[in-house]
Write a structure and sequence with these properties.
Helix content: 10-25%
Number of strands: 20
Largest sheet: 6 strands, mixed
Strand content: 35-45%
Radius of gyration: 21 Å
Structural class: mainly beta
Order of helices and strands: EEEEEHEEEEEEHEEHEEEEEEHHE
Amino acid sequence: MEYDMSQPKKIIYNNGENLQNQPIGKRKAPIKVAWKGMTYKSIVPLDKYHWTTNKSKWNSSKAGYFISVQNFSGDTVCQLKDYDPVKNFTKSVYQTTHNKLYRLNGHLYFRQVNNDTIYRFETVNRVRPLYVIDFGKKKIKSVADRINPWFNAHDKYIFKDILETKQFVFVFYTKDYASPKAVKNNSVYFNCFAYNKLTGEQFHTYMAEKPIVTKIKKSKNYSQSAPPPPLIIEPPLKGIINDLDYGITSWKWQQAEDGRLYKLLKGKQIKEHIKSKPKNSNLANKKLLEEIANKAKDDDLFIMTISN
């Protein structure tokens, strides 16, 4: 495996201290396959003749590599070594962590767990660093701390996701873990950072927002000795803010390989959104969206896209 040593763009900087002072301003889905001895293995195509599998941090620490490239004859072409394996971890429970992989314009991009850098495969055995997500002093530096569910991350930034279009890179992260404990301590905040690849401009679309927390009710057959039901913890401003289409937005955007972001919506969701808006609103797309909602059945499926 070869590494291109050119300097990647640093898209979050200032050692994390002044990060919150920044101004506000499909990938191909992996196939989850059951493998003996593993919970799952994600298979993602690299090109017409090769595919990749990637391991969780715990499994890559044991195997010594986190991404493996195979051809369709079943031969291993190369493996990316895990240079930051888990060592001397004595806890009986650990957090499951996974690498981020996505495709854009025919290339496969990846970020390893607890790594600052986004890489891109240039060939089947050569990768190039493109961006550095630098949380500085706010980063959890030890991978053992990153997988430790009892680690105190109240003053740390946690990478959540990344979406990349033709023009922008969106980085989603939280302050502290989005966990029931952090919610109880009022220490978890959601943030979305954007980098304009054409101009170099960097800004937040939102920052330091408290989550929306939904409690799941216990069923009648719920055992009193069982742990409490989980909480649904979501970002309040729903990810990338949409000021078009009468304001329909969501944090669950998905990425197409050509760089467009898309969101699947049911007719019922569009109708509910129309009802939630003021009747006297003069937004440009109100009439069009109302016409769609009136004609749609609850289970009709719509695709909303962002072109840039």
